[in-house]
Design a protein that fits this description.
Elements lengths: L5 H20 L34 E3 L4 E2 L2 H11 L5 E4 L4
Antiparallel strand pairs: 1-2, 1-3
Protein name: Serine peptidase inhibitor Kazal type 13
InterPro entries: Kazal_dom, Kazal_dom_sf
Keywords: Signal
Length: 94
């Protein structure tokens, strides 16, 4: 049985780790397959509504070109101003 040198083992381990790390960094993310925001859970339950959206930053881009802080703000605007505001993508608008 042949023994590997320390340099060979170091090269094999480091190349495997480098491949694992860099393959995830440069992987393209297909946001078209991500689910649309579940807006029904953010709609108010009564006529005197008080929308309390969480102060979490998770940007949502709408077709009107406006970037919302999170999907709750997007859904409340869609509910208040009409169905012409549609979901475009997660993330900031370009």
């Amino acid at each position: 049985m042949a023994a590997f040198s320390n340099l060979t083992i170091f090269f094999l381990v480091s190349s495997t780790l480098a491949h694992t790390v860099f393959s995830e960094i440069f992987k393209t993310k297909n946001t078209d397959k991500w689910p649309k925001p579940p807006c029904k859970m953010y709609y108010p339950h009564g006529p005197l509504y008080d929308s309390k959206c969480p102060n979490i930053t998770s940007y949502v881009c709408a077709t009107n070109g406006h970037t919302y802080q999170n999907e709750c703000f997007f859904c409340v605007d869609q509910w208040e101003f009409g169905p012409h505001i549609n979901f475009d993508k997660y993330g900031k608008c370009d």
